[in-house]
Amino acid sequence: QDIYLHNLNVKWDDIIGLDAAKRLVKEAVVYPIRYPQLFTGILSPWKGLLLYGPPGTGKTLLAKAVATECSTTFFNISASTIVSKWRGDSEKLVRVLFELARYHAPSTIFLDELESVMSQRGTVPGGEHEGSRRMKTELLVQMDGLARSDDLVFVLAASNLPWELDPAMLRRLEKRILVDLPSKEARQAMIRHWLPPLSNSQGVELRTDLDYGLLGQETEGYSGSDIKLVCKEAAMRPVRKIFNALENHQPDNSNLSTIRLDTITTADFLDVIAHTKPSAKNLSQKYTAWQREFESV
């Protein structure tokens, strides 16, 4: 059930920003399938890519776009998929996963929250459980096997805590990209996407009168998911004003199309910002410091 054969419906264009990450994913997954004659010898495609950065910046969304846009089998793997309580089972599950990926090649293995599976060995106080250590070793062995084979199997990993990852795993993830907080232009585009001047959803019209330039400036330090949350809260403001009218409404003799929602203004949006704080503002410096040491773009 962890193989995505259905369409997740996330396109490249749905992701605002992240150009470096999109370019590398295309180099590793899309172009080798499209132009196999180019990717031979020293030009063989990348086998591993790590997306790291603050929470809510679009790492998992990028993986969904890979599942949608690339004509590959997509394996969505988390700790619960490959960790077992039975002795020796985890290693077998890891081996079977990579064998399945080779069988269904071209394929992409997505490891979300990688630090939960591949934290540094030998750093746990009191020693690490041997089962956990064997599972990590098997994962490293399988990834090394990928690097030496011509199978079109690509490992895409995402992590919020890259400094907790094992150095051997970092070596196998050849490309490491910081997915940072969005720029001012990206924030403006996100607000314009979620709150356009006029939107109509199932007959309910929502109008906005926003200064997108000012709001892009005021939302500095907000991640993509923070901005979506702020837009949702701003859109709820005019809806809350009509709840009393809706409660007194007789559902059998009237319809909702007669209800007009107030226009969302810049002042409303700024008020929401004052009460909705960013979730990852102070983490940015830590990621930049790690990037200076381990970046591989």
Automatic annotation (TrEMBL):
Pfam families: AAA, AAA_lid_3. Its main location: cytoplasm. CDD domains: RecA-like_VPS4-like. InterPro entries: AAA+_ATPase, AAA_lid_3, ATPase_AAA_core, MT-severing_AAA_ATPase, P-loop_NTPase. Residues 45-183 form the AAA+ ATPase domain. Keywords: ATP-binding, Cytoplasm, Cytoskeleton, Isomerase, Microtubule, Nucleotide-binding. It is found in: Cytoplasm, Cytoskeleton, Spindle pole. GO terms for cellular component: microtubule; spindle pole. GO terms for molecular function: ATP binding; ATP hydrolysis activity; isomerase activity. This is KATL2 protein. The gene is Katnal2.
